[in-house]
């Protein structure tokens, strides 16, 4: 059932232009995906919702856009060169490699060829992608594609304090690509080798960290609920001692009940003063903060909120997907909240005559002029046109009919309730804007 649902979602995403396999014409690249016309809009809306709430609506969080390539010492200081590894085993029969801690591997049977107890000893495998900077491929020129955006924030801590004149407690937020050479990626865009993170590091006085941790936990859960997600499929998962990362004092995952089970899509971590202290040690530059009123000096503690953008997009899609019967016919709906939906409205002339196509074109253009993504569709029966938009997740369908040519009103049909209202063509843009902004 679970794989059935995932297969349907993957196929819908391709059909409607949400997500395509990367370099598909060459047979695809392993666990890398491209976002199509609807996918890129959905992703942008998701990132905008995050940025708006985490940066624009707060005066205690600053934005940043740090480069992907960083000085390699960064990754020694952060612990990634030595510690960002997964245990890996090889199957002697088929030669495939797996994460040693996968439940299938622990049973002793190879999930690909079925051989029993034919695994090598586990070895540590570093997940960072390595490349070379400059024209010479030698060790001295090794750089890494960042495996998390957080370090770009830590190395800029003092720059932001000085430039933005922020006082602790305050945060720095950024959205950007991260890369991990995962041994066993999978489940569509759940675990990929190239992905985006939306991260915020909140710097606090040591001792105030527990209180801020609770604040951010609640705030982040509230954000996910505000996306219209099914609250019964969201929960916190506290990390036990054995799950805690080397830098963390405490950590909670926010999990969603995917078709393949409860899984993390955001982490809230108390990173203590680990990262700033290590950068002070490795760079020789001061990372302490001087409180301008008390003159106290300390290295701040950090509460991190780290959301995977692609994984959250999968949450949005999985949560929105439903199949239902309407008037004896099956329909597939992506019930994405109007605020996140990639296309907000579709305009249909009922028939291709009596001036209806021209009115529909005019209304579609008016929506586009107001930067409301809208789609004009005159092809096929009205029922077929509704079904296509339901699958694409378009919340409102507007029909221009015979009455429009008489009194300049149109019908708007709601994707979820199927209710229809009639509004004047003049008020259409405002009506839609009020519901999608
Ligand atoms: P996991 O245990 O699933 O590998 P993690 O605990 O290593 O994840 P973090 O390092 O805390 O994850 O990263 C924060 C967020 O980044 C995750 O909650 C997830 O949404 C996202 N993320 C991490 N790795 C990947 C990946 N390979 N593909 C897609 N998203 C990822």
Q: Quick recap of the structure?
A:
By secondary structure, the protein is α+β, with helices and mostly antiparallel strands.
| Poorly predicted segments | none
CATH H level, superfamily name of the largest domain: Bira Bifunctional Protein, Domain 2
Stated plainly, the CATH topology of the largest domain is called BirA Bifunctional Protein, domain 2
N-to-C CA distance: 36 Å
Helix content: 25-40%
Bound molecules: adenosine-5'-triphosphate
Structural class from helices and strands? alpha+beta
What is the radius of gyration computed over CA atoms, rounded to a whole number of angstroms?
25 Å
* Tally of DSSP β-strands: 23
CATH class of the largest domain: Alpha Beta
What form results from the Cα inertia axes? globular
* CATH architecture title of the largest domain: 2-Layer Sandwich
The largest sheet is:
7 strands, mixed
What amount of the residues lies in strands? 25-35%
Give the count of helical stretches.
14
How many domains, in number, for the residues? 2
- Lateral arrangement of strands in the main beta sheet: 3-9-10-16-13-12-11
Mean pLDDT: 95
């Amino acid at each position: 059932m679970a794989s059935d649902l995932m297969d349907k979602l993957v196929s819908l995403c391709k059909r409607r232009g949400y997500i395509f396999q990367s370099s598909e014409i060459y047979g695809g690249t392993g666990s890398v995906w491209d976002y199509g016309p609807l996918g890129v809009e959905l992703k942008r809306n998701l990132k905008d919702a995050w940025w708006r709430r985490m940066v624009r609506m707060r005066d205690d969080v600053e934005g940043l856009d740090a480069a992907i390539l960083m000085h390699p010492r960064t990754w020694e200081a952060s612990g990634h060169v030595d510690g960002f590894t997964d245990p890996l085993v090889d199957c002697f029969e088929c030669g495939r490699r797996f994460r040693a801690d996968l439940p299938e591997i622990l049973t002793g049977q190879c999930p690909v060829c079925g051989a029993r107890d034919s695994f090598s000893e586990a070895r540590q495998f570093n997940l960072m992608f390595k490349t070379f900077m400059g024209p010479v491929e030698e060790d001295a020129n090794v750089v890494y594609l960042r495996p998390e955006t957080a370090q770009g924030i830590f190395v800029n801590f003092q720059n932001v304090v000085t430039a933005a004149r922020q006082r602790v407690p305050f945060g720095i937020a950024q959205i950007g690509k991260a890369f991990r050479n995962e041994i066993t990626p999978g489940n569509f865009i759940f675990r990929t080798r190239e992905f985006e993170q939306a991260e915020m590091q909140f710097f606090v006085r040591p001792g105030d960290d527990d209180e801020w941790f609770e604040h951010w936990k609640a705030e982040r859960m509230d954000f996910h609920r505000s996306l219209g997600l099914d609250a019964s499929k969201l929960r916190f998962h506290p990390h036990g001692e054995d799950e805690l990362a080397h830098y963390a004092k405490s950590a909670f995952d926010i999990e969603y009940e995917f078709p393949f089970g409860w899984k993390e899509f955001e982490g809230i971590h108390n990173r203590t003063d680990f990262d700033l202290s290590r950068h002070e040690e490795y760079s020789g530059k001061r990372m302490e903060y001087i409180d301008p009123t008390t003159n106290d000096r300390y290295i701040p503690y950090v509460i991190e909120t780290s959301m995977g953008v692609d994984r959250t997009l999968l949450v949005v899609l999985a949560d929105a997907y439903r199949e239902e019967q309407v008037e004896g016919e099956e329909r597939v709906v992506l019930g994405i909240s109007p605020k996140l939906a990639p296309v907000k409205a579709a305009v249909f002339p009922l028939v291709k005559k009596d001036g209806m196509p021209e009115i529909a074109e005019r209304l579609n253009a008016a929506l586009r002029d107001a930067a409301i993504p809208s789609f004009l569709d005159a092809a096929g029966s009205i029922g077929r046109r509704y079904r296509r938009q339901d699958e694409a997740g378009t919340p409102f369908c507007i029909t221009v009919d015979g009455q429009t040519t008489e009194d300049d009103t149109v019908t708007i049909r709601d994707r979820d309730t199927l209710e229809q209202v009639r509004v004047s063509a003049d008020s259409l843009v405002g009506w839609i804007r009020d519901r999608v902004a």
